[in-house]
Design goal:
With about 250 residues, this protein is α+β, with helices and mostly antiparallel strands.
Length: about 250
């Protein structure tokens, strides 16, 4: 799986990489039709904080353990492969991370990373005890990347995916970035390439026992991934949803 390696929005006014280098200075505080526990090669076992998948073990608070267990039980459309990955170690006392790729045959159309953070004491910037942080990226046609409305549309896909599943959330924060590459000299035979990146974070509403509906949030996030990748809507009646056209010449896995 092509893991999304990039900087993640911490939702607290800064941008942090996967290891949380900036946030550490401020506070302490695959599946293909299977679940994200790593049945298709991922490592979704109960790990300690900073281990594969994060801190979902017996030492974790009950609310966080329940939230992680819900993530592991989600079943998604077969084109999306999800597996547990190493979580940031110091963004929050407890963290669990997943990476995903939208796959068509042997080609990755989009990829991303979703991190669940938990601070039992609460976090001033989150306005809650949980936070979801994500990076989503895909390549697209250069002419599509030039559309001045593209960033607004991509952000609306994130909020729309959450709203479509009836999810309540707070303190959304993020960026949408377009990047273009043009090749010269020995690489001049390559066509120009453009990429879109969505970096965002939000605070999920906590339900009974202080546990957010992480399963629904993961499903919404995968809806966003599929939309960015240009997949048709999975559910009947969703044909009105606009998606990016599939990019030219997807990268081989």
């Amino acid at each position: 799986m092509a893991a999304a390696q990039g900087r993640l929005s911490d939702g607290a006014g800064g941008m942090d990489d996967a290891k949380g280098t900036e946030e550490e200075a401020r506070h302490k505080g695959s599946h293909n039709g299977s679940n994200p526990s790593g049945a298709s090669g991922g490592s979704g076992g109960n790990g300690t904080s900073g281990g594969t998948g994060g801190s979902g073990g017996s030492t974790a608070p009950p609310a966080f353990a329940a939230a992680v267990e819900a993530l592991r039980a989600v079943r998604l459309r077969p084109q999306i492969e999800v597996e547990a990955t190493r979580a940031p170690q110091r963004l929050a006392p407890h963290a669990y991370a997943l990476e995903a790729a939208v796959v068509d045959g042997d080609e990755d159309l989009a990829d991303g990373r979703l991190v669940l953070l938990h601070d039992p004491a609460g976090h001033e910037a989150w306005h809650g005890t949980f936070r979801l942080v994500t990076l989503v990226r895909a390549e697209l046609e250069p002419e599509m990347a030039a559309d001045p409305l593209l960033p607004d549309v991509c952000w609306s896909w994130l909020t729309g995916a959450l709203q479509a599943r009836g999810l309540t959330y707070g303190e959304p924060s993020g960026t949408v970035t377009r990047a273009s590459s043009h090749y010269f000299g020995g690489l001049s035979a390559r066509p120009s390439a453009s990429q879109i990146e969505i970096r965002a974070s939000w605070t999920p509403r906590e339900g009974l026992g202080g546990v957010p509906d992480t399963a629904a949030h993961l499903s919404s996030w995968c809806d966003l991934l599929a939309q960015v990748a240009g997949l048709p809507p999975a559910a009947p009646g969703d044909a009105s949803v606009v998606t990016l056209p599939q990019r030219r010449g997807p990268q081989s896995r």
